[in-house]
Amino acid sequence: MRDLNCFKAYDIRGRLGPDLDAGIARRIGAAFAQELGARRVVLGRDVRASSNELAEAVAEGLMSCGAEVLDLGLCGTEEVYCATALQEACGGIMVTASHNPIDWNGMKLVARGSAPLSPETLGAIRRRAEALAEVPPPAGGAARRALPEARAAYVARVLSFADPATLGPLHIVADAGNGAAGPSFDAIAAALEAAGAKLRITRIHHDPDPRFPNGFRNPFLPGNRHATAEAVRKAGADLGLAWDGDFDRCFFFDHTGAFIDGEYLVALLAEAFLARDPGAAIVHDPRVVLATTATVARAGGRAVQSRTGHAFLKQAMRDTGAVYGGEMSAHHYFRDFFCCDSGMIPWLLVAGLIGRKGKPLADLVGQLRADYPSSGEINFRLDDPAGAVARVEAHFAPQALSRDDADGLSLTFAEWRFNLRSSNTEPLLRLNVEARGDADLVARRVAELGALIGVPPASDH
Predict the structure, then answer these.
(1) Mind giving me the DSSP string for 154-170?
(2) DSSP character string of 87-119
(3) Helices 290-298 and 361-371, axial angle in degrees (round to 10)
(4) How do beta strands 68-74 and 40-45 pair?
(5) 375 with 438: CB under 8 angstroms?
């Protein structure tokens, strides 16, 4: 039995070779089919060079247990979610490591209806995969077929969130980062144009390319935003968009090229949904909360906190009937998209807001930025994260007005708060600090917390 360290809190991610290879992927496919009793499974993959081989192995594992594989090929994670629900499949598997380094890969797994797997079910799949000595050849009668119609159905579902005739005139820079976003964005843009949207689009880094000739970029990290920002300024565009590799996250830049931190987008979209659905629940993560909770309260909604991570947010959406949920890391979840996250629906909604309100994005979020300044997520790589958290706790906890241990350590004070937590997917300690109307206070507290943690921020921040 081999211990599979690629299983994380809510999905599968690991380094190629030591943590994840075709043999392990084949065992995971078989274990998934066995645990869920799956007869039909949707399968997709991102553009990484290793993803095709791993997807082939997953398909073999699924078919070894008699499951039919509905193969989307190169696609976005949200396309797997959509097809799993619309095809009434028993589950879905997306081969991707999202924003993790290029020498990693992984999988995102969902059950029937694109429901998230519980920690217990994911643990059971892990145990089955670890116990498998080998995977037999595909079972007799097992089938694998392409599903070319899935993209059109996905595009139709995405467009149901917008009124194309009211979109624009708007000039957009779209930065696919040479990931999977380009073809899907093109299909959405073509449908929007046919429906009367007045969008001018400047595409950069558009074609999927496993070599990532323009660098493997995670736009959540400040060092990876320059190309998009510069393209917005050069084009004189109204809005900039960038996606990660599997495009389940969308990142926004205003007309000046300035990056819009994710928590302000969550607050903006929460307000928009509550205008349509007064009193509805809005789910948010615990890292940065002040702008969102204040906005939801002002709009008459109900703010619901969830643990960080797509599986936890999705379950909270389903448990509460929330109309929308958002994470400051640029994951946005929608009740009418199977309670799943999408990197394409958010930009349609923001484009609609710009058109209806007649204001640029910078103005739409300007007051939120002033009222609730934040640090952005700061990552630390260190050998003893527990010791660092203990030092921070000992120093700050006695002064706090409230404490929340639901997801890392969150301490709230009269004019500021912070969240310090270990990543669910990477060997990092993550810090977020926010305040009420005082950016200088944020900077001072970041410096204090950094000194207690004891190492400089990771160079990739």
Answers:
(1) HHHHHHTTS-GGG--SE
(2) TT-SEEEEE--TTS-TTEEEEEEEEGGGPBPPH
(3) 110
(4) parallel
(5) no
User: What confidence score (pLDDT) does residue 137 get?
Assistant: 85
Q: Are 393 and 405 in contact (CB under 8 A)?
A: no
SS3 content of the chain, % helix, strand, coil (to 5): 40, 20, 40
Output the six-digit token pair for 243.
Answer: 């996606």
Sign, CA dihedral 433-438-443-445, equals negative
Rounded Cα distance between 267 and 272, Å, is 9
- Per DSSP, the residues of 225-251 read -HHHHHHHHHHT-SEEEEE-TT---EE
Active site residue 64: no
Angle at 12 between CA 9 and CA 13, to 5 degrees: 105
Residues of the chain with pLDDT below 50 are 461
pLDDT score, position 134: 84
Cβ pair 34, 130 in contact under 8 A: no
Region of 205 (left: φ > 0; alpha: ψ -120 to 50; beta: rest) is left
Closest among 95, 96, 92 to 68, alpha carbons compared: 92
With tokens 């204001």, the residue in question is 359
- Indicate the SS3 state at residue 145: strand
Please report how the helices 150-159 and 345-357 are oriented relative to each other, as an axis angle in degrees rounded to 10.
30
H helix intervals, 205-333: 226-235, 262-276, 290-298, 310-320
Laid out side by side, the sheet with 324-326 consists of 302-305, 281-284, 324-326, 332-334, 340-341
C-beta of residue 251 within 8 angstroms of C-beta of residue 217: no
Identify the pLDDT of residue 459.
59
Which residue type sits at 169?
A: P
Structure tokens at 74: 């190169």
Active-site entry in 50, 51, 64, 98:
98
Residue range 304-359, pLDDT digits in tens: 999 988 889 999 999 999 999 999 999 999 999 999 999 999 999 999 999 999 99
- C-alpha angle 3/14/430, rounded to 5°? 115
pLDDT score for 413: 98
**Which residues contact residue 287 at a Cβ distance below 8 angstroms, ignoring those fewer than 6 apart?**
308, 327, 328, 329, 377, 407, 419, 421, 430, 432
pLDDT in tens, 375-409: 999 999 988 899 999 999 999 999 999 999 989 99
- The helices-and-strands tally (H runs, E runs) of the chain is 14, 21
CA distance 204 to 58: 32
* pTM of the predicted structure, to 2 decimals: 0.94
Distance from C-alpha of 131 to C-alpha of 334, rounded to nearest angstrom = 37
**CB under 8 Å to 238, separation ≥6 — which residues?**
170, 171, 172, 255, 354, 360, 361
